[in-house]
Amino acid sequence: MNHNHFIVKPGAKIKLKDFDSSYTGKFNSREEATTKLEKDVARLRKYQDILYAQNTYALLIIFQAMDAAGKDSAIKHVMSGVNPQGTQVFSFKAPSAEELDHVVERAVLMAQDRRLKAADLGLTSGAGESRSLEEMSLEEVERYLVQNGIHVLKFYLNVSKEKQRQRFLARIERPEKNWKFSLADAKERGHWDDYMKVYEDAFRSTSTKWAPWYVIPADNKWFTHVAVADLIIAKFRSLKLAYPTLSEQHLQELLIAKEALENEP
Predict the structure, then answer these.
(1) What's the Cα-to-Cα distance from 1 to each of 4, 32, 114, 133, 233, rounded to whole Å?
(2) pLDDT tens digits, residue range 194-231?
């Protein structure tokens, strides 16, 4: 899959309408994409196991989209094979009182304990003065994360206005989907062009070499899933993951343990 087809080049002025939301690449049908996705889900399961064993890297995956673009569906299908113990999912909806307490507490601790030097961020300006995370730009925070082994993937699920309309109607017509829709969702469509402008400006200013934005076609969810999975796997491959190499002492201890277990009465 040609990932350059989706990437927002750093500093590039883009128009989301120029990205084909119905694009399906080389796949001619849902069945073809589903076959590829099944293989990729198995690969992701293996990579997650190695990632956990190696204990060197982490992956931060960010989804952004208009309503009904399929964020929940993408997470559900792409991550269907991974171990839940190795993942955390956060939704940026209005936080509960308990969640808000945790956020505030975490922010205070970060402000108090995480003083960073400009040199640690790869910055060329300044005299290496200490700075808090609150004083850093988003690009600097993401660079700091990547330099410390937390790699960032940012996906914008690009759904067309017409496809959103169809999915909204489906939510209204299917009782089990009614809870996912409100009148406010329909009213927000009146600001569609404003949203697109905001997204375009945001992507231009925050797509970087170390943490680019990918605009993923979202009119066909089956292609969205296979495209996201393919990009995650490409990131894992770039990390050259490997199970830890055991020391000679550790290997000898394994042999001793094996012998003891085999000789148990």
Answers:
(1) 9, 13, 39, 36, 11
(2) 999 999 999 999 999 999 999 999 999 999 999 999 99
Q: Which of 91, 55, 66 is nearest to 242 (CA)?
A: 55
Q: Residues 159-168: pLDDT tens digits? A: 999 999 999 9
Give the bridge partners for 60, in sequence order: 152
Percent of the chain past pLDDT 90, that is, above it, reads 63
Q: How far apart are CA 163 and CA 16, in angstroms?
A: 15
Structural domains counted in the chain:
1
The boundaries of the domain holding residue 106 are: 3-262
Residue 38 CA to residue 78 CA, distance in Å, equals 9
The reported pLDDT for the residue numbered 108 is: 40
CATH of the domain at 96: 3.40.50.300
Q: How many CA atoms lie within 13 A of 174 on its CB side?
A: 9
DSSP secondary structure string, 23-42?
--TT--SHHHHHHHHHHHHH
Where on the phi/psi map is residue 70: left (φ > 0), alpha (ψ -120 to 50), or beta? left
> Which residues are registered as beta bridge partners of 155?
63, 214
Helix (H) / strand (E) element for 100: namely helix 97-113
Entry pTM: 0.81
The backbone torsions φ and ψ at residue 125, rounded to the nearest 5 degrees and listed phi first, read -95, 165
What is the Cα 97 distance to its own chain's centre? 26
